[in-house]
Each structure stands twice: as C-alpha cells, then as structure tokens.
Amino acid sequence: MTMVSSSMPPEPGLAARLATRVAARVALALRVSWPFAAFFIGFFLVWEYSVVIFKIPGYILPTPSQIAANGWADIPRLLDYTLITGAESLIGYALAICVGVPVGLAIAFWKPLQRTVYPFLVSLEMVPKIAFAPLFIAWLGFGLLPKVIIVVLVCFFPVALNAIHAFGSLSDELTRFCRSTGAGPLRTFWKVRLPAALPQCFVGFKYAALNATVGATIAEFMGSDQGLGFYIQIATGNMRPDLAFAGIFFLTLLGLALFGAVSLAEKLLIPWHITLRRH
Amino acid sequence: MGATIDIRSLTKTFGVGPAAVHAFGPVDLTIESGSFVSLLGPSGCGKSTLMLMIAGLLDASRGEIFFDDRKVEGPRTDIGIMFQDNTLVPWRTVEGNVALQLELRGLDPRDYADRIRDLLRSVKLDGFQRRHPYELSGGMQQRAAFCQALVHEPDTLLFDEPLGKLDAMTRESIRSDLQTLWMQKRPTVVFVTHSIEEAVQLSSTVCVVTPRPGRIERRIDIDLPWPRNLEVKASARFTQYVREIQGIFHDYGVL
C-alpha cells in the first residue's frame, strides 16, 4: 500500500534539486563577478610571462607556477606551520575579544573609568603595539605565549574601543523608552542595549581579525623556530622567494578564513543590520 | 479615562551658575482627565522638555507634577510614550517590537497575542506583523510605534511630535486614527506639535508655548464638534481658531 497519492507529480530527488541550486548560484556568481575573476587571472598571467619575457632570475622573483609547484613539494611543512600560526592568531584573537568586550562594557557604563582608563587606552592606541614585540620575546622566550600576547595586543584595542563606542551610544529615544517601562538595567541590557551594540562591536571584531595574522607573523619574525612567519624569513634568507611566496599564500588563506568566519558570525547574529540586508 | 495631570510652578534650568540657561517655566497647568491637550510652539520653545518632565524622564529644577495627586518622582511606567524618532528596534519584527514593550515590563507577550493582533489591525498593519521596520514606509513605522506605545493599555499618552517626519497625506490619515482611538478610550493625551492645524484638529485644549524661556502663553479650549473630519476642518470656526493662534505667534515675532 502506498501512502503517496498517484495524482501527485513526482518530486525531483534531493540531489537533483541541490545540483540545480548550486548551478544557479555558480551562474549568478559568474555573471556578477566575472570582471573580477578575469582581472585576477590576468594579473597572474602578466606576472608569469613578465618574469619569463624579462628573464628575471628565480631568486629575485619566481613565477606563480614555480611558487605553486615548489610550495606543493613542501606542503606538509607549510600545512604544519599554517596550523601553528593559525593557533597563535586564533588564541590571541579570542583572548582579545574575551578581555576587550568586558573592558569596553565597564568603561561605557562606569563613569569613573571613563575619566581614568579611557583616556589612557586612547593614548595607548597611538603607540604602535608591534614595537613591544621584541620585548615580549626577550621576556618570555621563543614559545607560544609571547606570540599570543602580541596578537592580543594588536587585537585588543580595536575590540575594546569599538565596544566602548557601541555600548555608550544608545539613542536618547530608546533610553527613555526603556526607562518608561520600568525595566531594570539587566533586562534593558539583554533586550535592547546588547543587540543595539552588536553592529558596532563587529566593526571592531572584523578590524581585529585583520590584525591577528599580522601580529602573529611579526611576532614570529622576531624570534621563533616554527610558524609561517619563521618559514618566510628562513626561505628569504636561503634565497628561496618561491617558498616565501608560498608561505605568504598560506598566511593569506589564514587571514581570509578568520575574517570569513567573523563575517559569517556577523551575518548569523545581526542579519537585520543595514549593511547585511538582502534586498 | 486617563489621569488628571497637575503641573505646579514647574521650572527647568539647564546648567548651573552664570552659564545656566533658563529653559522653561514657571508653568502652572491642569490637564483634565480624558482631555487631549496639545503643547503647540516653535522648535526650541521647551515643549518637549515639558513633556519629558511630565513623563518623569527629566527632573524639574523647581515645581511639581502630580498624576491624580501622586507626585511624579521618577519615570512613570503607567504611560505610553512616542517620539518623533520612533523606538522600533531593527532586529525585531513589527510584532516583536510591540511585544518589546511588554517584555521590558516583565510581561509575557503570549498573554497579549489577541491584543497585539487587534491593535495592529486597527492601524491597518495586519499582514505586516512579521516584517522588519526597515521594510515599512515611515508612516507604517509610526503606526507600529503607536501600537508599541499602547499595547500595555496605558491611560495616559505622551506624544512628542510623532508625525513630525511624515508626509502631509500620511499625517492626515494617522491623525484620524489617533482621534478615533482617543474618542473610544478617552485616555489623557499630551501631544507636542508645531503644526497649528494639527493642534486645532486633534485637541480639546491647545496650549500655545512661546520660547526663551518657554512658557504657556495662552490656553485655548477648542469648541468644535467631534470627530474633526474634513468637513469640520473646512468650517469657518476651525479657520478662526487657526487664525487666532497664528496671530499670537505673529505678535510674538515667531511668524
């Protein structure tokens, strides 16, 4: 006995429907971004053939195909180091958010901190944080900890300063509306202040995501025996710019992955925000 | 019926010492229960300041306000309040924004589902419950904000130029909705506006507010039949009231 009425048209299989949707998305992406794709491919073609035509030696500037081939030959080490630099960036980044957001909250809501800690943070923001890197290496050695601390340092400020701004800028109307309901500070926070602050917080999170891999790489330049920064430095010292470029390629992937993850979180958490609305 | 609001020698000064700005008052005014009182004046005359003080959202420098003999000493939670810039939040739907008023009060919106639906229908927003504010026109947003201000059944409503940013046609249509609601439930309404026509059309009493420092120059009871439809607005008496008020502002150098 069949449960499905015979008059129903046959449903296309799930796989077939999925394939149609994927094909439609790819077609759309191609239609919209083919100029970018063409430029991107063109850039690497020009690079490749300029090196060949002008007879630039490989130890000065390798071709993209050499970079790909030689990078592929060293792939286990590159992947290994990507994980290490990725871990440094990710741990530092997460710590910066865990510390930066509460600090921002405290400053936004507690007046005495606004007159003491806040000006201090703003003046520290003027200091190039990366200048502290050699000191931390000297104090803490070659391990994971000094790298994480440097990543925290370069990520903390955008997170904290944007959080202060985010939590301190609810409109007068909404503030008054909340007060007129008699809601306590905690309920007001969860229902209104927190969601209202998220877009500005994400501005800081995204900016910090860009800083994270920069911090990790420079920290590795300063002193380390593993990671992509270390790899690039050694490759350059050994006159192997092809391998240095391969390292840069993986660093780029790392940065893209982190930024992409934060952007995805933003899309999921605040789909209502003006910059993310689908029309 | 709404509360009787009694305002006694109310004064507001911003700042202290020689830099202090005397913004408003002294004002004495009784707003009768169930009346619709407009505070009409040019921008910067302190009419919004007065409204915020009535709501208990701004402290008076001197003087007192009473709601049915209870002194205002902090934000009043038994009122509905609406501003020119609406208090809809972008992350909630129309329905969710109306429910926000209840949730902030610790009430369960599910117990009010029928009321929310009826309110939205009364301002012609049925079918838009699940839309977000940015998907609505300015007029529809103000209608939604109106439901948000009313859902907890306040018997006193404070409006601060709620129609200030809308086009003329939308204003006209929301005014008539507002009037219908007031005639049905007779809440006490304090309505801040800078439109003479709007004040005369909606109010039982118009308080003409003049600036620097803001004070109530005249109290004019509007003796026109309800509802104040287009016919009433076309009448000679309506025009007379508008002229009279224009004259006051003219003498004061505002018009």
From TrEMBL, chain B:
Indicate yes or no for the key word ATP-binding.
yes
Q: Does the keyword Nucleotide-binding apply?
A: yes
**Pfam families given for it?**
ABC_tran
Q: Where is the signal peptide?
A: none
SUPFAM superfamilies xref list: P-loop containing nucleoside triphosphate hydrolases
Sorted keywords for this record are: ATP-binding, Nucleotide-binding, Transport
The record places domain ABC transporter at 5-236
> Could you tell me the superkingdom of the organism this chain comes from?
Bacteria
Molecular function (GO) terms for this protein are:
ATP binding
Read off the PANTHER family from this record: ALIPHATIC SULFONATES IMPORT ATP-BINDING PROTEIN SSUB (PTHR42788:SF13), TAURINE IMPORT ATP-BINDING PROTEIN-RELATED (PTHR42788)
Family from the record: Belongs to the ABC transporter superfamily.
User: What is the protein name given in its UniProt record?
Assistant: NitT/TauT family transport system ATP-binding protein
Origin organism is Ancylobacter polymorphus
